[in-house]
Here is the input.
Amino acid sequence: MGKVLKGSLVGGLALGGGVIALGALKRALNPEPRYASWEKPSYEDFEKKVLIVGAGFGGFTTAKKLAEQLNEQERDDVGIMVIARNNFFTFWPMVASIVSSDVEAQNVAQPLRRSLITAGASYRRAEITGVDQENKVLRAEGRPRGDLELPYDQLVLALGGEPNFFGIPGTEEHAMTMRGVQDAERVRNRMIERFEEVTFLDSEEIPDSTLTFVVIGGGATGVETASELWTLVHEVLAPDYPNIDPYRVRIFLLEAMDHILPELDAAPRRAARARLANQRIEVRTETLAEEITEDRVRLKGGDEIMSENVIWTAGNRPNAAIYDLDLPADEQDGIKVDKYLRVEGYSDIWALGDCAAIPDIREENGAVIPPNAQAAVEEGKTLAKNVLAALDGDALEEFVFQPQGQLVELGSDFAVNEVMGIHFTGRLASIFWRLAYLARLDSPQAGARIVTDWVVNYFLSPAVTQFRDEEA
Here is the structure.
């Protein structure tokens, strides 16, 4: 009898400990907002106001780090407002994985409003239309209630970039881009649509252009997109379309330079090139597109690739909206800022990310910081400190970019990584890629769901469906 009671007691304690542990985990994954709904002042009521336009890596990091500083100092005199076109934060490194359904789109698009409000900031979905610099008011279009006027003491511009087609005829009309979640879904749906179109056709009836995909741009985005297309065809769609030879699908990767992945050293570039060759992805370097039409890509030199499916990843330019703000700006690199990320000639306007020409103070030739996610995150950390320092009249901190490396995944079991001068490739590199980016996710919910996607897809081939807009 005593053994039974003792066993019951131990079991009860273990069960109670488990419940307490689960409760602690739930609280850790769902932190309480800094302000309760009834005690948070509206943005306009704060003594000092910081307005951040854009919620990519640069703007989002600035808002979060600034909120963290205010929380640590227990300050309630500074209000933070973020305005952005979308109410989600796109985790760019995983966008290409949506193409093969390795991760679901909603897990890459992390909830912006919840994260900001939990940190103590405010959020409004709107698009900037102008800045009244004299009265320190930003004008924005916030549908459906018309225009907004938002005051600021410090204004941060993080408007990002947009594709640069370099004036190549037909590119904007006929090429898909890879700028976000919707683009990745569009690319995946295009492949599914092509399979549906040819599923009952004899091989000789299928035009070469229908099942040929051309990715233009051999940087990280282009390489990852081409590899994910291969995975979608050979590992995901092939079982559902047994009458279509997956090797009938041709994937080209075009790059104007004499090598792909210019952001990496020669060794990982060679490993990536070998991986693409194993996947039968046809890589053409020193190749320039001259025109894109409905059914072909015309190349410089007279060659043509017959394709109805072109994906553009080759160029990026600052958001065109910045040129309407009456700020010093360079057509190629964006808003001109100093070494503190402050717009030249202004003490209360800042810019970072793809829309800003940020001087690289390590160089003496006038070079600017590359417009990538890694740089934008580091810029956001420095800018958060400088905005608060400007509000308090303290000294500013110079932005010094120290690249930590580059991670490129080519399918779920292979990556090429360069970290602090160390190169490694293969499955181990893929595991490192996943762990590194999981650690950088802001949303615990998204992280948990992405891990679930990976585990399920390891044992089961992803089931891909296509949602069509029947009216469109």
User: Anything to note?
Assistant: The first strand starts at residue 48 and ends at 53. The mean pLDDT is 90. The radius of gyration is 25 Å. The chain is about 35% helix and 20% strand.
